UniProtKB/TrEMBL annotation:
The keyword Ribosomal protein does not apply. Residues 117-501 form the Solute-binding protein family domain. It holds the Pfam family SBP_bac_5. Keywords: Signal. Residues 1-23 form the signal peptide. It comes from the Bacteria. This is Peptide ABC transporter substrate-binding protein.
Length: 594
């Protein structure tokens, strides 16, 4: 599973990991649900179609068009490639590309019974997992949604197909889990994964990355993708990879069918994407006839659009204090506001090859001068009053195994920061900035054009100026799309988001990992991560994740700021909940007008 950068998050660099136990935390008034009772915001975290054994879409009252706003635009139908991978694609695709499970607002992972019969460990040694697909599920172009599609997801993300020079053929964002498995189709309805070592997070696979193999076959002239293996002829694999890596960007109707309750029908680059009910969907039809997901980068403008009736739902992957204040003031007009800790965390990644930041004392001094609580008080507390600095790259505060391994490294103390540099032979120049051997303690922080990120950099600039460190602001709207995965930064400010599984962290922090764009290499963490993802149970893996967390903190390479709260607001609908990884549309098929 890959972590996504949330572009505000990033993957939504929002990407890969999340919390195992995170309760819903809602604010705002009640609203009446289908049964005529009042649902609190916290209760909206559970889908109406959930039961003890899985999720099945419920009967839903039909309604017209619903317009939903979020921070950034949809860009790609294939969100599993390293270039495309980000939360805003997931938000749009969750009802178009169904997978084996859904994850609700409480981060509970539930079998998706509209498309699956079962997912079971059918052998423990070696570990074998069998995915049984429900018969009769089709894509919106009439072709079967079946084992070929799972096989292609495994083949393209297993990191096993290499060119003669050793480079990977498929440019997948994350490979963790798929890379431990050999996949095969026993029949059209049965995908079997055999693991070379145990993998506890197998439920994280085949959830938001199952694409139409029949489209790829038709476009590439490959008769049967399941006949390809990672050791097939390089020319054959490259032909398939060229399509998978590049051709599912944006929206092209014939190439991008749906296997879920909604299909994509229109796309305006940088602005909006439109979903309409999929008439080939075998489950219960969705409530809204049409859903328009619209990008409004300015959070206060999003809130204004809800107040004016231009949209019915605001969904902010990027929390914003000013928008929160505005929305909380609209309850008398029937607006419900919700907020709670999400599955993503804001952080600073240091480019370890940078001439200044490659020096450990500069990284240590930088960590020491940043006042995280001050940033939180000014930018986050209005959204979530009890927000605190995050002390881990791998765990969230409510997770079993969480320990704060950054408190002593990040005290927000300019005097101590200066001492670190002075002790290492740096001296303050006439301009107040430390220098040594002709090199100044000066670097850029790069980020997208989200107002809160720019404000974060402004605060850090002031805090670290007092410590003799010069920080330049580098705002680039395309930073998460084009530069972060190329490692084109001194310090990157973004967020990782993920499903409630920790194994996806491996590709971010291991030496040479697919999402390790900062060239970080911590051998002790590599060894611990390898152990963590090969335990048979999640409980057994925790101590290894803790070891990795501590080793990473000691390398001063990545600096967690805070767990990102999600916030959302809505009017005229019965129940809406922002699911931290999948966004507001995770159960939009259940939305009903009030």
């Amino acid at each position: 599973m890959s972590m996504r950068r949330t572009k505000a998050l990033p993957a939504i660099a929002l990407v890969a990991s999340a919390s195992l136990v995170l309760g819903a935390c809602g604010g705002g008034g009640g609203s009446s649900d289908a049964d005529g009772g009042d649902a609190t915001v916290a209760e909206m975290a559970t889908a109406r179609g959930e039961s003890a054994d899985g999720y099945t879409a419920p009967d839903t009252k039909q309604s017209g068009q619903v317009v939903v706003s979020t921070d950034k635009p949809f860009t790609s139908y294939n969100n599993a490639t390293e270039d495309a991978n980000q939360s805003y694609n997931t938000f749009a695709l969750v009802l178009v590309q169904p997978g084996a499970h859904i994850t609700n607002g409480n981060n509970k992972v539930v079998l998706n019974k509209d498309v699956m019969d079962s997912v079971e460990v059918t052998s423990k040694s070696p570990q074998v997992v069998t995915w049984k697909l429900k018969k009769g599920v089709t894509w919106s172009d009439g072709e079967a949604w079946d084992c070929d599609d799972f096989y292609m997801a495994w083949l393209t993300q297993s990191n096993a197909a290499k060119k003669a020079d050793g480079t990977k053929i498929f440019k997948a964002a994350g490979t963790t889990g798929y890379d431990l498995m050999t996949g095969e189709c026993k029949d059209d309805q049965t995908f079997v994964g055999t693991y070379k070592e145990p993998y506890p997070d197998y439920e994280s696979l085949f959830n938001s990355d199952v694409l139409p193999a029949h489209v790829l076959e038709k476009q590439t002239g490959v008769a049967d993708v399941t006949k390809l293996t990672p050791t097939s002829a390089e020319a054959d694999l490259t032909k398939v990879a060229d399509f998978w890596n590049e051709k599912w960007n944006g929206f092209t109707k014939d190439l991008m069918p749906s296997a879920g309750p909604y299909k994509l029908t229109a796309f305006e680059p940088n602005q909006s994407v439109t979903l309409e009910r999929n008439e080939k969907w075998g489950g219960k039809p969705g409530g809204p006839e049409k859903i328009v997901l619209k990008a409004i980068p300015d959070p206060v403008a999003q809130a204004q659009a809800l107040e004016n009736g231009e949209v019915s739902v605001n969904s902010f992957a990027q929390p914003d204090a000013n928008a929160a204040t505005k929305l909380k003031g609209l309850s008398a007009q029937g607006v419900t506001f919700g907020a709670g800790p999400g599955l993503s965390f804001e952080h600073l990644d240091i480019q370890m090859k940078h001439p200044v930041l490659s020096k450990e004392e500069v990284r240590k001094a930088f960590f020491m001068c940043v006042k995280r609580q001050d940033i939180i008080d000014k930018l986050i507390s209005e959204v979530q009053t009890d927000a605190k600095p995050l002390g881990s790259l791998i765990f969230f505060p409510k997770d079993e195994g969480y320990k704060d391994v950054y408190a002593d490294k990040a005290k927000g103390d300019a005097t101590e920061s200066k001492k670190i540099l002075t002790d290492a032979g740096w001296t303050q120049g006439a301009d107040g900035v430390f220098a040594k051997d002709g090199v100044r303690a000066s670097f850029r922080i790069s980020h997208t054009d989200i107002p809160r990120r720019k404000q974060t950099v402004e605060l850090i600039q002031g805090q670290c100026k007092d410590a003799g460190i010069e920080i330049k602001d580098d705002t680039d709207p395309n930073f998460l799309d084009e530069r972060v995965s190329a490692g084109d930064y001194d310090v990157a400010l973004f967020a990782w988001s993920s499903l409630p599984f920790k194994s996806g962290k491996k590709s971010i922090y291991e030496t040479g990992g697919g999402q390790n764009w900062q060239n970080l290499s911590v051998p002790k963490a590599d060894a611990a991560l390898k152990q963590a993802v090969s335990q048979t149970s999640i409980a057994d893996s925790l101590k290894y994740f803790q070891e990795a967390d501590e080793a990473l903190a000691g390398a001063y390479g990545s600096f967690p700021l805070f767990q990102m709260p999600n916030m959302w607001a809505f009017k005229g609908l019965d129940r809406v909940y922002f699911q931290s990884y999948y966004g507001a549309l995770w159960n939009a098929n259940e939305w009903q007008t009030k």
